[in-house]
Design a protein that fits this description.
Largest sheet of chain B: 5 strands, mixed
Helix content of chain B: 25-40%
Number of domains of chain A: 1
Oligomer: heterodimer
Largest interface: A-B, 43 and 51 residues
CATH topology of the largest domain in chain B: Fumarate Reductase Iron-sulfur Protein, Chain B, domain 2
Number of helices of chain A: 8
CATH class of the largest domain in chain B: Mainly Alpha
Shape of chain B: elongated
Strand content of chain A: under 5%
Strand order of the largest sheet of chain B: 2-1-5-3-4
Helix content of chain A: over 70%
Order of helices and strands of chain B: EEHEEEEEHHHHHHH
Radius of gyration of chain A: 19 Å
Number of domains of chain B: 2
Shape of chain A: globular
Chain lengths: 219, 252
């Protein structure tokens, strides 16, 4: 089918999978924020998620499919783009593009590395900082997160990853609406601004947890 | 004697003998330039000096020099057409520059636009895209009655805004992915907005998008450099329109 091969079709698939992942990012942030309620909040939330049983696996496989479709087409399209634009100008003048829009492939690659690390860390619990929590499903999530983020280096890496996510979505959210054709010349600037604000909200929201733990506010 | 003050400029111009020549920048001095010279006239002055001194003049594309034909194609200091809003190189005047300025002049750079010589590139890839679907198949015959085919004014205006494209190639030249989406979308949107274009809308959009890829243009990643560089100010809303038309075509 041409949808899977053409210049526009592949971008539509990337846009849809990308946006489904943004929905996940929103829900995940709301879930994480239950840590501010205290141990009972996030532990009860984790308990509730795990009680969904096979649905958890349906969800995980769907997310894996979204990541794969988004990443494979992203890499393919980026390679084609650099072939199409092999000779560069001596003077590089930027009119509208910005650091975020130009580095989507690299922020994307970094995010995949982060996702693998993040799952090994808090889901599989194979990293030494959370060794005490390995094998408990889901167990004391509050204890695991606070123990882990009390380490400044782990907290720092996490915040940097959230900065990368923010950069990716700084361009990505408005890009979704353009690729789906769900905008006009009047709505595009508004959608761009809302998308950028949302990207910053994710950065602040996600980063607040390790920072609050480091500051000793959550303990 | 003219009372105009003249400028002296340093030009770094891309010189390339032919498609297979690696090419390089050459530096020239443009003397006796007034603020009333257009950019192309400034190069004409430099070329006359080059010819007098027995050197080969700078080869560049131009035709109407009125800003409507879309032939001129130079990247000036990294911006196609030089960066003055809605202005082609031929309508860019030297009053935009200062005495002593150094200017870089390069050809469009995109794999799908191979360089023929110096600043001249082969833009027939755009013709290939148009041939793939940028037309309406209509039966010829008697002249239709006036107003037999009613087109609402907003639709006509929308189509005219898209039809302003002069096919110069600045959009693909400005695009970091060398994508031809703005050009392609302008034609798709123009024809999709009009009753004459609607019957073939689905076939047109898929064929033109495929032709774009086959010509070697990249994929749009929504940087919007194209709109900023476009001498006719073609809006990226037409790219969104193309995307909508493309999605619609999947259900035909």
């Amino acid at each position: 089918m041409q949808l899977f091969k053409s210049a526009v079709g592949r971008k539509i698939l990337m846009a849809i999978t990308g946006q489904l992942m943004v929905l996940f990012v929103i829900v995940h942030l709301l879930g994480n924020s239950s840590i501010f309620i205290g141990p009972n909040g996030i532990n009860a939330y984790a308990e509730h998620l795990h009680s969904l049983g096979p649905l958890v696996w349906v969800f995980r496989l769907a997310m894996l499919a979204f990541v794969l479709v988004h990443a494979i087409y992203g890499i393919q399209v980026s390679i084609e783009n650099s072939t199409a634009n092999s000779a560069k100008y001596a003077i590089n003048t930027k009119l509208k593009r910005n650091f975020a829009s130009e580095n989507m492939i690299w922020t994307g690659v970094l995010l995949i590395i982060f996702i693998i690390g993040h799952i090994s860390h808090f889901t599989l619990r194979i990293t030494p900082d959370v060794a005490a929590f390995a094998g408990q499903v889901p167990g004391n999530v509050f204890g695991m997160v606070t123990t882990s983020f009390s380490n400044g280096i782990i907290a720092f890496v996490y915040v940097v990853a959230m900065l990368v996510l923010c950069l990716h979505l700084f361009h990505g959210i408005q890009s979704f609406f353009q690729t789906m054709g769900w905008n006009s010349d009047k709505s595009l600037p508004v959608i761009s601004q809302v998308g950028r604000v949302l990207a910053v909200v994710f950065l602040v929201g996600y980063s607040s947890i390790p920072l609050f733990i480091l500051a000793g506010i959550i303990k | 004697m003219s009372d105009h003050k003249t400028m002296t400029l340093t030009l770094n111009v891309w010189r390339q003998k032919g498609p297979n020549d690696p090419g390089k920048f050459e530096t020239y001095t443009a003397k006796g330039i007034t603020e009333h010279h257009s950019f192309l006239e400034m190069i004409d002055v430099v070329n006359e000096d080059l010819i007098k001194s027995g050197k080969e003049p700078i080869v560049f594309d131009h035709d109407c020099r009125e800003g409507i034909c879309g032939m001129c194609s130079q990247v000036i200091n990294g911006v196609p057409h030089g960066g003055q809003e809605r202005t082609t190189v031929c309508q860019l005047h030297m009053r935009k520059f200062k005495d002593g300025d150094t200017i870089f002049i390069e050809p469009w750079r995109a794999t799908a636009f191979p360089i023929i010589k110096d600043l001249v590139v082969d833009r027939s890839a755009y013709d290939t895209i148009i041939q793939a679907g940028g037309y309406t198949s209509c039966h010829t015959g008697g002249v239709p009655d006036g107003n037999a085919l009613l087109i609402p004014k907003p639709d006509a205006d929308y189509a005219m805004d898209a039809a302003e494209c002069i096919g110069c190639g600045a959009c693909a030249a400005a695009c970091p992915n060398s994508s031809a989406m703005l050009f392609t979308s302008a034609k798709v949107a123009q024809l999709a907005a009009l009753p004459q274009g609607k019957p073939e809308a689905a076939k047109r959009v898929t064929a033109m998008v495929d032709a774009m890829k086959e010509c070697g243009f990249g994929n749009c990643s929504n940087h919007y450099e194209c709109q900023a560089a476009c001498p006719k100010g073609i809006n990226v809303k037409f790219i969104a329109k193309l995307n909508r038309e493309y999605l619609k075509a999947q259900f035909k």
